[in-house]
Amino acid sequence: MITTQPIPSATILMLRDGSRGLEIFMVVRHHQIDFASGALVFPGGKLNEGDDHVSQYCEGANTQDTQLSYQVGAIREAFEECGILLARTSGQKALISASRLKELAQFREPLAKGKLEIKDFLESESLMLACDQLQHYAHWVTPEMMPKRFDTQFYLAEAPADHLAIHDGYESVDSVWIRPEDALAGNKSGKYTIIFPTRLNIEMLAEASSVKEAFEQAKNRKVVTVKPRFEKREDGNYLCLPEDTGYSITEEKM
After folding, report:
1. Is 95 helix (H, G, I), strand (E, B) or coil?
2. What whole-number distance in Å separates Cα of residue 186 and Cα of residue 28?
3. How many distinct structural domains can be found in the chain?
4. How far apart are CA 202 and CA 229, in angstroms?
5. Could you give the CA distance from residue 95 to residue 100 in angstroms, rounded to a whole number?
6. Residue 35 belongs to some domain of the structure
7. What is the largest CA-CA distance in the chain?
8. Is 244 inside any structural domain?
């Protein structure tokens, strides 16, 4: 059997405190996208080659950290897919303002379509990526027998209060701020399509009542690489996870 190499990818779980508790920003994937089309997902995607070459434009990150390119990819994808940019003007302590973000919105599409390198964008606009705003949350690797595989790092981030989140209109066609409980209920009723890894991470987020609590829980939990495997049993096929992942289940019948 030929094993397809997993594609390095990053996903960002953008959070805020809503009137009824913790909310997460999710987008609906375009039906013509070849992975998870039509599904309700967290913003994210595969890493770009340029994500490896901007360590000098990253704040709050260990430049020797093997995850640095994933952190860059997560911040870049958040900007491309939902219009939130976790960055500071060089030399400043505060994240960029809503007015500055509005000026930078013109760069979302060129970045997303590969017409602009992230390094050139950061350099020309005197920006530093706020990697210190990310909290590592999960790590999933697609099973070997799948035709398309991803090696995905998940990160939590709190949405700046004055940044307006909005989907990009081509990779994602709709978006919503939603409580984890409501997303899970919508998946159960058939209102939303949510793929397995996304659902388990939403279930874990539902254990927190606020952004602060979600971050604290993540900091206190060891991130275990999740590489699901398939098992064929007498009563059907099962998708199995390692025992120590921290998720509510370790297997699910397919």
Report:
1. coil
2. 13
3. 1
4. 21
5. 10
6. yes
7. 62
8. no
Task: Kindly report the pTM of this predicted structure.
Answer: 0.89
Q: How far apart are CA 188 and CA 208, in angstroms?
A: 20
Comparison of pLDDT for 143 and 117, the residue scoring more: 117
Contacts of 144-148 with C-beta under 8 Å, sequence gap 24+, read 144/1, 144/3, 144/4, 145/1, 145/230, 146/4, 147/4, 148/4, 148/7, 148/34, 148/35
Q: Is residue 2 part of a domain?
A: no
The answer as to whether 230 is a domain residue is no
Unique residue bearing structure tokens 């919105």: 105
pLDDT per position as a tens digit, 210-254:
999 999 999 999 999 999 888 888 787 888 888 888 888 887 777
Q: Which domain holds residue 178?
A: 7-224
The total number of residues written for the chain in this structure? 254
40, 192 in Cβ contact below 8 A? yes
Domain of residue 19, CATH code:
3.90.79.10
| Alpha carbon distance 170, 33 (integer Å) | 9
| 211: its two tokens | 């952004």
